[in-house]
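Sample intake sheet
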Amino acid sequence: MNFLKKFKYTDYYTKSAILIIALGFIIRFALIFLYHPSGDACWHLSVSRFMADNLKIPLLEPLGREVFWEPPVFHIISSLFYRIFSIFGSGVAEFSLKLVSPIFGSLSLIMTFLIMSGLFGKKTAFYSAIFATFLPINIFYGTIAYTESLMTFFVLLSLYLMMKERHILSAVAFGVSLLSKYNALFTLPLIIYFMYKNNKQPKEFVKKFLIFGIIAGLIFLPWLARNYLYLHNPLWPFFTSVFGGYESAETFKGNNISSLWSINNLAALYLGVFGVPEGNYQNIFYFKVPFIHLFFAAWLLATVVFTVPLFFSFRKKGQSSKIKSFLLLWLAPHLLLVALYVINTGIAYSRLLVPAVPLFSAMWGLGFIYLLDRMKKFRATMIFVLIVLVIGFSAAEFVKAALAGKEWNFYQKDFDWAKKNTGKDSVFIAGGQCMSYNLQRFTLNPAAENLDKANYAFVNQNFRLDYHVIFDEQTLKSMQSRNYSIAYFNKSTGTTIYYGIKR
């Protein structure tokens, strides 16, 4: 009742923002009933399940990747969910693994509104909440089991607490954000800016800065020490050319500076922000959907229309200098992060920009308000178009999740057989990050040197969802020449499971 009373007397923009964020919360939680983990999400969930079952952090266990090096807060929280909900059965426990990202993705929307309220006022914060709630990349990474949602929440919490001059709590939140994903480091310039803004006396600033660094370091540095101890590189798999470290195919040793000017990478960033998996336009045509080219053209036009207010954010009186400062302190470090990944991998990952989405949301909000004020005759039309766009973007995420989930479910009988008919300690030859998650078994890549290390082999040369599952010809011939027995065959999916491999 107290909440209802407070809500009743809350100002219009805060009340409207609460409703928008509540809708975003519903969308994210509804999506987890449809989506099937893929890519890195499979690895994160496999690790979380392993930690829940074994009460330890993995290192070289074959859980979809060769090494577990990622900062572990996401996995620790997910494993806690798994153990708590396991009292209701394995199915509920598996489902609970999906809850972490929607919870923290939704909390990030709240933090976005609170931060923008303090910086630009509640009206701008309301429109910022609309942008952040319905931007496809924010829906996607606020739903699937990637570490971005958790890291972004703690980064924003640290920023908000610093704005409120709660330096110690801000340091704790920032330490946790680093222990969620290294990328949090690129928000530090912005946090230092607010630290300085609140403590302009040099001695006081230095004191606060040292306290902040010590607290955050005490939380984060033990993980760097762990990676140095076991992998001989505190930041493995990064900077192996500097620190060296454990040899693996995962290490980043590339030097693709020319990729920085690649039009394909710029397009990948744009498409990824609007929900195209991996920013690869070819993924749009993966599914056989009627009139897909027409839908794509309409969708592309919708993204252009949706971005228009961003270009008018500098026209809002009294806000231009503030926006320029935040572009330098907030966006520029994350663009540097994208550039570092491009140089090392040749690929531009749009998810690296997720912590900067609140800045884009503020710019969009300022621009949209400016357009509403200057085009009063078209206010109703603009709001109608906005409603159509956010419904369209949200619907696209549901369609995408449903189609991808259906593709994975096609192989569910194969996965279920493996779970029911093989020992929990069994090792499969099965490539890709998602096979360990789906089989709930250790997996090794399809390579000749791994054939004597496994008990079973999952073979499907027509596996569309991940090309890593497919055996190369030499390895397949080597395996077949050993006359292993067939334990399972599914004519419908084309999957064969061989056994008797490990000697």
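Comment: The beta strands are 427-429, 442-444, 456-459, 485-490, 495-499. The chain has a mean pLDDT of 90.
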